[in-house]
Structures are given as structure tokens and as C-alpha cells.
Write a structure and sequence with these properties.
about 400 residues; alpha+beta; 2 domains; 6-stranded mixed sheet; 20 strands
Length: about 400
């Protein structure tokens, strides 16, 4: 995917504990902090809802989340609905921001339908137009879509109120704007440190597959991805990888990928000491986790959006500044959202305080998201680092048990 567009804002109402009165604006780098249950993971899950729905369908997307009744805000009586909005920065087709609005209603028996689905340009095309320009306008599986000629909407009937028009109208030539949004959303990558399958990474044989250049959600293809990225035409990844590994281990020499047979290889890590190279099943779990984040954050051709939930899990505290550098450098090339409980990791973003988003719950138990104001905290930041303020329970940061 050549063009990467930023996810500018998100808004959710009725999705778990998300009841957002207004859209929340995202930056290139977003560090989410807050207490357990505040809503950090719910926010990431809501963003992931769109690519899940496009790749798996709505039924599987709700099944992954234990059904519609588990996803809908618990304070709502069923039947009820949820409203989800994703706004992306300017489309290369029109040069105007795109907003995708989805309303899904359902009951406590698991039945659901798409009440409304709208894809529109977030601003009028000219001063003469009063209403926004819609590329999709569907209700219960029926509606209109705008083809590439832009002259007249085409009436479409999906014949299924549980399908998305965005996923069903799949002709790039006829509906290029729909294809653009699909391509963007499907490129987003989501990782949760708790889901990394360390055993599979260490022990399962690696079958040669040149197409695997992106780390799987459970990290199981780590060796294959590292091999392919090192061998790719963008050869600086190998040099960058060596630089990072030397910062982790003074004795690092190189990674090798000897063939086991015609279809499989294994990763071996050569150090100054011991001289005999180590296989993946001989290195620590924390090292495996760090290799996963290197494969994601130092990728030479990253996706449009990378989200990682609690990347600090299992990582030695001395390595967290290196992890923070990887996160910061990745955000120079793509959009990054990180959720963390680590005050040590947070320390490393003291000079980027406006990249930190504090997640709390209001009196009604709904999630709130507030970006730190570096100017407001200027006096504090002259004397303290963010992690120290977080551990001390500073009211602007919250999230630390008192």
C-alpha cells in the first residue's frame, strides 16, 4: 500500500464503556495511560472493529467479542444500538477527509442488523454546497453508492442487513473511494502483549514463505518476518536490526537463518560469548518479545496504523528506554497508539507530554480521554519526569492506585 492516511478522529457511543460526546482527535503518536478498566483496551478494540468487520464479517467480529450483548454498553437496555465513527485524513482521490459512520442495533439473543452505514466527505467540496458529499448511504442493507464518475448515485441492495456495504461493494474501478478506505483499514495492525505465543515462536518449525513480511497478531511468524525483511530490497532493515540488537546485547554479532530442509529454516543468534549460536528456543521470553516489537516498530514499510497494548510486558526495565525510542521513531513514519501501565516507559515521553492521553472514568462509569497539556504541566516537568508524576498520583495523570 503506497498511500498511508492518518486516522484523525474516532467516536463511539454504546460500545462497552465508550460514550463519547464528541470525536477524539488522534496524533501520529498516542500513549494511552490509565487505571485498569478505564477504557484503554476498549478504545483499541473499537478501532479494530472496522478492519475485523471488513475481513471477517460482522457475525465473526461480534463472536470474537463474545456477542453483541457483551459489546453493547451494559447500562443500555436491549434491544439497543451502538454508533461508531472513524474519520481519516484526506483521500488522495478527492483531497478531502473521509468519515465512516456505522450504527448497529441488536438484542440480547445475539441478533443484530446494520441500521445505518454512511461514508461521506467530512467537509463540503465547495462553498456552494450546503450538505456533505456521501459516497455511501445505506439503511438495513439497502441504499445508494457513488461510482467513480461522480455523476449519479447507484442504488444497491445487499439483501442482508448483517452485511456492510463497504465490504460488499468490492469493485475498485466502480467505487475507488470505498476501495481506498477498505485498503487503509485492512492495513491497520493490532497487537496485545498478552496474546504473543512465545511457545509457538520458539518451538514451531518455520516454513519458507516470502510473502510473510508483517508480524502475525500472536507473533508466531517472527523468524520468517525477520528473514524476509533482512532479505528485502529495502536492505537497511538488517543494518537497523543489528544496531538495535547491539544496544540490547554488547556481544551481539549476527542473526543467521540456516536451512533445516528444502522447506524449513531456523533462526540462530550468534554472540561473542557463547561462541556456539543460540536457537530461538534458547533465548529468554523477554528477548523474544523485544524481537517482536522490533519487527513491528522498525519495519521499513509499516502499515498505516500500529496499535500495541502493554508492550512493556515481559521486557526488562533496562530495555524500556530502547523500546520507547523504537516507538518514537516508528511514529515518524506511521501512526502509533500504545497503551501502557509502565511508569518507566512513560518517563521516556516526558519531552513529548502532549502525546500522552489520560484515560479515566467519569461518575457514570464511562471512559474519558484527555490529552496532556505540556504548557499546563511546564512547571512540574522542569523538576519531574512523567513516570514519577504518574507514580505519585498527580491529578493530571491519574491511573495510579492510591
Amino acid at each position: 500500500m503506497k498511500t498511508k492516511q492518518k486516522l484523525k478522529t474516532i467516536q463511539a457511543n454504546g460500545y462497552r464503556n465508550l460514550e463519547m460526546a464528541s470525536p477524539f482527535e488522534l496524533d501520529n503518536l498516542n500513549i494511552l495511560i490509565g487505571a485498569n478498566g478505564a477504557g484503554k483496551s476498549n478504545l483499541l478494540e473499537m478501532i479494530e472493529f472496522l478492519p475485523d468487520a471488513l475481513s471477517k464479517g460482522l457475525a465473526e467480529t461480534f463472536k470474537k467479542r463474545r456477542g453483541f450483548a457483551s459489546v453493547i454498553n451494559l447500562d443500555r437496555e436491549l434491544p439497543s444500538d451502538m454508533q461508531l465513527v472513524w474519520k481519516l485524513s484526506a483521500s488522495p482521490h478527492q483531497g478531502i477527509d473521509l468519515k465512516y459512520h456505522l450504527i448497529i442495533e441488536g438484542d440480547n439473543h445475539g441478533r443484530f442488523s446494520v441500521n445505518q452505514e454512511i461514508l461521506e466527505e467530512a467537509k463540503p467540496r465547495s462553498h456552494h454546497e450546503i450538505t456533505s458529499y456521501k459516497h455511501l448511504d445505506f439503511t438495513y442493507g439497502e441504499g445508494a453508492a457513488m461510482p467513480s464518475n461522480g455523476l449519479q448515485h447507484v442504488l444497491e441492495n445487499l439483501k442482508n442487513a448483517q452485511k456492510l456495504a463497504l465490504g460488499s461493494l468490492s469493485s475498485p474501478q466502480v467505487y475507488p473511494v470505498l476501495e481506498f478506505l477498505r485498503e487503509q483499514a485492512l492495513s491497520w495492525r493490532f497487537y496485545n502483549a498478552n496474546d504473543m505465543n512465545i511457545h509457538a515462536i520458539k518451538h514451531e518449525s518455520k516454513e519458507i514463505d516470502a510473502l510473510q513480511q508483517t508480524l502475525a497478531p500472536d507473533g508466531c511468524n517472527l523468524g520468517m518476518v525477520l528473514y524476509n525483511l533482512i532479505q528485502s530490497e529495502e536492505g537497511y532493515f538488517g543494518e537497523n536490526l543489528d544496531r538495535i540488537l547491539r544496544s540490547l546485547y554488547n556481544g551481539h554479532r549476527l542473526l543467521r537463518f540456516p536451512l533445516v530442509d528444502s522447506m524449513h529454516f531456523e533462526l540462530r543468534w550468534q554472540f561473542d560469548n557463547p561462541r556456539k549460536p543460540l536457537k530461538l528456543d534458547q533465548v529468554s521470553d523477554g528477548t523474544i518479545r523485544m524481537l517482536c516489537w522490533i519487527a513491528v516498530l522498525a519495519h521499513p514499510n509499516p502499515p498505516a496504523l500500529v496499535c500495541i497494548d502493554e508492550p512493556e510486558l515481559g521486557i526488562h526495565p533496562a530495555w524500556l528506554p530502547i523500546l520507547a525510542t523504537l516507538i518514537t521513531e516508528a511514529a515518524e513514519h506511521t501512526q502509533v497508539i500504545i497503551s501502557t501501565h509502565s511508569s518507566i516507559l512513560l518517563d521516556e515521553f516526558t519531552h513529548q507530554a502532549d502525546k500522552v492521553v489520560v484515560c479515566t472514568q467519569n461518575e457514570a462509569g464511562y471512559a474519558t480521554f484527555e490529552r496532556l497539556d505540556a504548557e499546563t504541566l511546564e512547571d512540574w516537568l522542569e523538576h519531574y519526569r512523567l513516570g514519577k508524576m504518574f507514580r505519585s498520583g498527580h491529578p493530571e495523570l491519574g491511573g495510579w492506585p492510591t
